[in-house]
UniProtKB/TrEMBL annotation:
Alphabetical list of PROSITE patterns matching this protein: MACRO
Family annotation (InterPro entries): Macro_dom, Macro_dom-like
Pfam family, one: Macro
Source organism (scientific name): Solitalea agri
Protein name: O-acetyl-ADP-ribose deacetylase
Residue span(s) of domain Macro: 1-166
C-alpha cells in the first residue's frame, strides 16, 4: 500500500526512512543533514564504517535517536541533462532501497523525493519514476507500507496527481 504525506521525514515512526545521501555517506545538507541531526552522532560513526555508496545503490544503518528503527542510505544521481543514465540510476535507488527493506523483513519504509533538491533532477520526471518503480516492486513483494514523504509543495502536488490517476 502506498501513502502520501507532507512533512519532515525525520519525524516518521516507520521501520526505515530513506536518506538521499551522497557517495561519501558522511552527511551533507538537505534531508541528509536533517536525518543526521535528528539521529545524533552515532549515525555518522556507523556511516564511517560503510566505505561510501555508489550512485543508485543503498546501504542500511540503525536509526539511533530517530523514531524510525533503520535508515536506508541511497545516493541519487546528479541531473546532468538526462543523457547520463539519470533515469535508470534514480529507479535503482528505489529498487535497491526496497530490496534491502524486504531482505530485512521490514513492513514500512518512507522515501523522500530523492535527487530533487541539490541534485537538480526535474521534479515531475522524478515523481513519475518513483511512483512507477514502487508500484512495480509492490506487485511482487510483501512490504505493507511505502510512504512518499514530500517536503515541498511542488512535489506534494505532483505525487497527489500521479497517485490519484494510476
Ligand atoms: N524531510 C523530507 N524531505 C526533505 C527534508 C526533510 N527533512 N529536507 C529536504 N527534503 P536534497 P538530493 C526534500 O537536496 O537532491 C545533500 O547535501 C527536498 O525538498 O536533500 O538527493 C546530500 O548529502 C527535496 O525534495 O537531496 C547530497 O550531497 C528532497 O528532500 C545531496 O544533498 C531531496 O533534496 C543530495 O541531493
Amino acid at each position: 500500500m502506498i501513502e502520501l504525506h507532507k512533512g519532515d521525514i525525520t519525524a516518521f515512526k516507520v521501520d526505515a526512512i530513506v536518506n538521499a545521501a551522497n557517495q561519501s555517506l558522511l552527511g551533507g545538507g538537505g534531508v541528509d543533514g536533517a536525518i543526521h541531526r535528528a539521529a545524533g552522532p552515532a549515525l555518522l560513526q556507523e556511516c564511517k564504517t560503510l566505505n561510501g555508496c555508489k550512485t543508485g545503490e543503498a546501504k542500511i544503518t540503525k536509526g539511533y535517536s530517530l523514531p524510525a528503527q533503520f535508515v536506508i542510505h541511497t545516493v541519487g544521481p546528479v541531473w546532468l541533462g538526462g543523457n547520463n543514465n539519470e533515469r535508470e540510476l534514480l529507479s535503482n535507488c528505489y529498487i535497491n532501497s526496497l530490496t534491502i527493506a524486504k531482505n530485512h523483513h521490514l513492513a514500512s519504509i518512507a522515501f523522500p523525493n530523492i535527487s530533487t533538491g541539490v541534485y537538480g533532477f526535474p521534479k515531475p520526471l522524478a515523481a513519475d519514476i518513483a511512483v512507477k518503480t514502487v508500484k512495480h516492486f509492490l506487485e511482487e513483494s510483501r512490504l505493507q507500507r511505502v510512504l512518499f514523504v514530500c517536503f515541498d509543495e511542488d512535489n506534494y502536488a505532483l505525487y497527489s496527481e500521479l497517485l490519484n490517476s494510476i
